[in-house]
Design goal:
Elements: H1 8-42, E1 45-51, H2 70-78, E2 80-82, E3 85-86, H3 92-101, H4 135-141, E4 145-151, E5 175-179, H5 194-198, H6 202-222, H7 228-250, H8 252-256, E6 259-261, E7 264-267, H9 275-291, E8 297-302, H10 323-345, E9 352-358, H11 391-394, E10 398-401, E11 410-412, E12 416-417, H12 421-428, H13 445-449, E13 459-464, E14 467-473, E15 482-489, E16 508-518, H14 534-552, H15 564-567
Helix pairs in contact: 6-7, 9-10
Length: about 600
Amino acid sequence: MNCPVEMRNNCLFHWFLVYKCLHALLGLASSSSSRRSNEAASRPNIVILLADDLGMGDVGCFGNSTIRTPNIDYLARKGVKLTQHLTSAAVCTPSRASLLTGRYPIRMGLASSNKMGVLGFVASSGGIPRSEVTFPKLLQQDGYKTALIGKWHLGVNCQSIGDSCHHPLKHGFDYFYGVPLTNLKDFSDEGGSVITSDQKHIKIIIFTSWLLIVLTLIFARRKDLIGKTFLVGNLIFITTIYLVLVFLMLNVRMLNSIIMRDFDNVEQPIRLENLTQRLVKEGSDFIDTSSQSGKPFLLFMSWIQVHTALHASSRFKGKSKHGFYGDNVEELDWGVGEIIKALKLNGLDNDTLVYFSSDNGGHVEETQTDGQRAGGYNGIYRGGKMQGGMDGGIRVPTVAMWPNHLPAGSTIHQPVSMMDMFPTLLRLANISLPADRRIDGKEVWPLLTGETDKSSHRFLFHYCERDIHAVRYMPTTGNQVFKMHFAWPNWVNGSEGCNFMCGCYRDVTWLTLPLLFDIANDPMEQIPINTSTKLYTDVKVNIQTAIDQHKASIDKNIENQLSLSNVLWKPWLQPCCGTLPFPFCHCSDPQYPRLY
């Protein structure tokens, strides 16, 4: 810029102002960038790795020497191993809800009074209530990027398709790719069914019931006990019910085998082979994009494995020493390793808390159609999935890793609840707990870091749906952990399981005198404490007082999300994709046109 001599001072002043403005703008940008970097550095990224039905004895670092789990074992070597990490229920829907909310399922209406412990259809209207506050929602509101990859099983719609009242995106997730319900035996091509596995003669029972009612109505009409209109109306009604039941039993796969991306139904039925590879890609992509945002993130990898139908890809088939089930555990472990690899490639491994666990224990009775074992192993712990207060169903393999924050290679034997993740994660993110509701989880960061060796809980209640089957009691002094059982499973002789699954509401005996164990010294629960001792009496009084206080804190008016009306299939809530109308639903995820 050429300035006349008489204007040179004005020009210099002009350039000085431009320089100061640019300097201020650059300073603001630098300060903003610095604040974003400091925010990400001060609050950890969070990766939740939740397996499905994985047993305590299925993992190397928890004692298995034949199934190869090097990546889960790596987390244990570099982090903290929890040997008494407990779910709030021995089955997935209520357990997962408690992880997200830090509350017992009964507080959310996710404890059935009619023996329906989980949601059975994508087109059910029950699920996690909108009134619940989840830790993903609080993290999202405070600047975290959030994603759920994999299994949900906490409901989709309430009254109409598309209202998405229970959907993951309504509960704190920015992105969802996965199955809205769960994985079922019916989804495979081997011919198994979860319905006939549990109730082998259900088809005969339904047909016989329909036939007896029809014959009774016809007989009553011939004896002039009922009118013609009454006969025709009831024949139509009962036959409609029968045909709907048959339709549902024959079409479990078409109705429930669905993958969603956000709110869209993108695949029906699911192509199970290489599903784990797809979930890994989705999770890794989220880490890659989040690493560029400058914001902390939550990635919830909710694995489909090792729930049946088993579906290990060709790379893992026939490779383990434990048949197809072992192949699936090893593929699950590979997926864990790929997520850890993505963190390292983005330089985020030291800035990320990684938490690995399972939604409940192994399904000890599960087999494939050829008789090969298809369920997990719970180590020394008794019972398994669905068995109320039995440790095999609620004590799950758990590790947590955050380099330079958690002591590498340490082990915690004190009781910790999965509900404790809610307040603990919020503490790490500098977020206050909700003040308008009771949070049952306790903040356990001092226990994880080794600052204390005491459990944050004094009592833990082990439910079967609405009933308390057992209670853990940790006295304020000493290291004893007592567990009192009020109900005990009716196992098949010589086993610790039932024919397909022990219904904790049907296959149990309620005990006149509860059984009491000191599980700190008797983790296999083999030697009950004598009921005539003062110790037994004192512990029983303390536990009963705690039960009474706990029950008094439960809102009796909460809507039952697992009521019969909420778990039944509702045709107006049924998703269906493809060019043909229902029930000819069929589509494949266009982002994965072929399996790789």
